[in-house]
Structure formats: C-alpha cells, structure tokens
Amino acid sequence: MNENEAFYVAVTAWGTWAAVGCAFFAVWWQIRASKKLTCTQLLLQLSAQYESTDMHRKRAKLANTLLSDPNSRQLDDTVLVFFETLGHLMRGGYLDTDLVATAFSVDVCNYWLALQSYIKDIRKQLSDDTMFCEFERLHDRLSGDFAWKRAAPGSRVSSPTPPDVIAFLRWEALRGD
Questions:
Q1: What's the CA gap between 111 and 72, in Å, rounded?
Q2: CA spacing 20 to 30 A to 87: which of 21, 33, 79, 140?
C-alpha cells in the first residue's frame, strides 16, 4: 500500500469513527429529550389528577375536618397518598424538582404542617416510621435549602406559620363548593 492509499484509509477510518461518535451523541440527545418530555407529561397528568373534581372534594373534606378538629384521626388519606406518590416519583428522578416545586410546594408545605401530628400518630400506632416518609422527604426538599435557591433575589422564603396553615385550609375548604 502506498502513502496515498494509507492516507485515504486513515481518513476513512477517522471519518467512520467521527460518524459513529456523532450517531451516539444524537441518540443520547434524543433519549435525554424524550425523558424530559415524559417527565413533563407525567407531571401534567399528576396536576390534572390533583385538580380533578373528585380530588377537590377530597381536599375540601380534609380541610374542613382539620379546621373543625385539628386532632381528628378519622381522615381520608387520599391527599397524603397523592403526596407520598409524588415524593416517591420525585426522589426516583421521574419528575423535575423545579416543576414539582412550582406546582405543589405551597400545598405540600401547608398540608405537611396540618397533618404532621396525624402522621406521627399513625406511625406510632402501626410501629412503622416509614409511613408517609416520601411525603415528609418531599416536604423537606421543597421547604429546605431548595426553597432559598429558588427564591427571587431579595425575597424571603419561610415555612408557613400556623395562621398561614389555617388560611390555606380555609381556601382548600372552598374547593368542595
């Protein structure tokens, strides 16, 4: 093989490897975009479920129960299970944290504070500290350092106060009307 042939073989080999590299990059990019789209679609489905008429009724009933008796132990746990699922999906990387925070942080933080003693009692009754632990992790994630990072410059992010939680529950109670 002469020098020209060797040169063309080398250029062809390098070109082939470059094409393979570009193909791998294109496939990786497409998978990444597809995953992001799927995560967004999942969040939209969860948002639609959370804003459904049935869930509005359940949220209103829960809020009314907590407003009339904050120590009630006769609660429908549909909202807690929803947040438990949301937390599990977020921890698993199936949901974008920024999107979850934008859509659910106010509700998660207020419901966690309103239901914290109920959850502690359930854990104690069942001797199971893992009950609603994904909801707790979700709350911690959305109310901790992450909230400070998301806040607009100069704004102050803080946990809801007891009067804030009551105002939130009153607002939720109106959803059943």
A1: 14
A2: 33
Q: Locate 138 and state its tokens.
A: 């979700």
Whether 159 and 104 have beta carbons less than 8 Å apart is answered as no
Write down the pTM of the prediction.
Answer: 0.80
Q: Whole-angstrom Cα distance, residue 127 to residue 121?
A: 10
Domains in the chain: boundaries? 1-37, 51-176
Q: Rounded distance, CA 168 to CA 162, Å?
A: 10
pLDDT tens sequence across 136-155: 999 999 987 556 555 666 55
